[in-house]
Amino acid sequence: MSARTASIRPDLPQKRESEALARWRSDAQNVPVTPAFGHEKQSLHAKPGSETTGHDYFGQNPPPLQGNVISVTFTLPRILYKAGKLEWDTENRFWRSGHLDCLLHLAQAPLRQTVIAWTGEINHLDEKLSHSPAEPSSTSIAPGGHAEEKEDSNIDGAVIVTTEEQKRLETDLYQTCERIVPVWLYLSTERKEDGIELKNQSRWREYAEHDLYPLFHYKQREPTGGGDERLRWNDYHQANEAFADKICATYKPGDVVMVHDFYLMLVPRMVRQRLPSARIAFILQTPFPTSEFARCLHRRQELLEGVLGADVVVFQASLYAEHFANSCARILETQGGPEQIVHDGRCTQLVHIPTGINIQHISQHAFNPTVDDLCKEVQDSFSGKKIILGHDPMNSLSGLDKKLQAYERFLHNHPEWQDKVVLVQLTSPALLEVGGTEEADFASRVNLLVGAINARYGSLGHTPVQLSPLPPQQDAYLALLRQSDVALITSVRQGISTTALEYAVCQRDARGTLVLSEFSGTAGALSAAVVINPWDVAAVADEIHKALTATREDKVVSHAALFRQVQDMAVERWARKLFGVLESIPLGDSHGDNPSPIIEEQ
């Protein structure tokens, strides 16, 4: 097999908190764990640079890199639908907003950017229209930000894209502000005389999401006999090879290649074989596990060597860089340490540059008349009560069960708060992982915990836990961020928490308290937050009480320190730091004259 590249709001009833939450939920079914701000629906025909006013994201002294930036990400920042012959419909692909902010910032930076990405699963427009906004979604949000789609609506679940339609879409995508160059993924048997017939499109995600994502979050799967793993690996290799082909076809001398995340771990080395002097960065958005887990990886050697094809590997926390270096030393017998690795005569730098957010955009959206009105509604709905806000995916990695246990312990230990506080918990649908029901079981456990707390501590006019199965609209989410007294994040494993960063920005007037899990990659950069161990339920309950009873003066001081740290993670500083590292790398000097053999598909 070979892949080819080619409003009016009614008054709220008094003391009906649950109805308030229901009103704010978005009609959109594919919603982000953290919404992307300022990324309104955009025509495919928008011209580069026409979306927003340009901004110097590199400060007064932009780096002296002379080439363009090739940002390589697994899926497009849009979901594609076939609307008819030569016609395409699109909507925003809601993924981690920090990642999207990075792409948009680079699109407006002094350096010209091209985004290379897979089209994602293409469906017919009637698939989009068939979802009823009044009913719960049948989709689920996956690690890469995509939605698990229903089978395609036409015969045999196939989507036929003609050569002419491919060319039309490629032209339209390149004219967007991000200058997108799509990667078409399909089997050789799906190539037809005048186009391609796409079937089983989710196959290209399966190895990354079934094998890599769980293990990177310290969840090891049981072996299944080898056959399925081999098929998933072949598809993963094939997809990475298609990306490498497209990069090499797009690259010009002096360009910088930035490869994003675990879907594309083989790409840096594949590109290095063909472009020995290219500057290549690999940015991992997730945690990286200890060597004890990494050694359990299927194709561990190929994956690590694939990443080491980059000049720079970027992690969200220094601990993840240490884990990666230890894994390379034990599996590949590399030399060096947590800052630099030497393998096969090549040197790869390891750095931790946490992905930030667009503070300016969030501030503009959070502090406007529409959100001001919604803030008043939040105040009226929860009058006389403190608000604790949670915002997590409905999966075991979120630690949502531990959050609820700590909240119940807090209510038990401090009965004076039982009718004076509410936990507003926003969630996204559970990821239904391939071959198991673990996340569905977790969602059931969460619902049981919520029911038990509300039954024991609730009353006719008070519901202690407000659980929303769908995140609210963007403005309502911002209003909740502004009005919450505490943000509680209890993830048991997480790369970066954009919710934590957004909360700090939205609390410029209220000065609420951020309680953050030490197992979030954000914790290392936000030492001014209240950092907790989510497994210690009693301690978390105590910290909730301290946060709710803190003095105004203490909250002002801690928020000032927290906001300074968030500013240091702003996406423009992220870009400046990364390009500073890349600019320091001599072209053609760090990779030797004998690159290692290309990874073979098996």
Shape: globular
Radius of gyration from the alpha-carbon trace, in angstroms: 24 Å
Strand content: 15-25%
Q: Quickly count the helices.
A: 19
**Mean pLDDT across all amino acids:** 80
Number of separate strands: 21
Question: Would you kindly provide a written description of the structure presented here, covering whatever features stand out?
Answer:
- The protein folds into two domains: 338 residues, 3-Layer(aba) Sandwich (Rossmann fold), CATH 3.40.50.2000; 211 residues, Glycogen Phosphorylase B (Rossmann fold, 3-Layer(aba) Sandwich).
- The chain is 37% helix and 17% strand.
- Strand 17, helix 14 and strand 18 form a beta-alpha-beta unit.
- With 602 residues, it is an alpha/beta fold.
- Helix 13 packs parallel to helix 14 and helix 13 packs across helix 17.
List the helices and strands and how they pair.
Elements: H1 17-24, E1 69-75, E2 78-84, E3 87-92, H2 97-107, E4 113-118, E5 123-124, H3 125-129, E6 159-162, H4 163-174, E7 180-183, E8 191-192, E9 195-198, H5 206-216, H6 227-250, E10 256-260, H7 267-274, E11 279-283, H8 291-294, H9 300-307, E12 312-315, H10 318-332, E13 335-336, E14 340-343, E15 346-352, H11 359-366, H12 369-381, E16 386-393, H13 400-413, E17 421-428, H14 438-457, E18 465-468, H15 474-483, E19 486-489, H16 498-506, E20 513-517, E21 530-532, H17 537-549, H18 552-568, H19 571-583
Region (Disordered): 1-25, 127-154
GO molecular function, one term: trehalose-phosphatase activity
Biased composition (Basic and acidic residues): 12-25
